[in-house]
Design a protein that fits this description.
There is one protein chain. With 39 residues, this protein is mainly α. The chain has one domain (2-38). It has 2 helices and no strands. The protein starts with a helix and ends with a helix.
């Protein structure tokens, strides 16, 4: 668990663009899901 947390932390600091991209993808997927349920 600690090793995975350390890897996640180092990935965030070394690749902030990838992290931001993943956040955008997650946000888009959540938005699509919400829209699907709303219609």
């Amino acid at each position: 668990m600690t090793n995975e947390a350390n890897r996640a932390q180092s990935a965030q600091t070394s690749r902030p663009i990838d992290v931001q991209f993943n956040k955008n993808l997650i946000g888009q997927n959540l938005g699509k899901t919400v829209r699907d349920y709303a219609t």
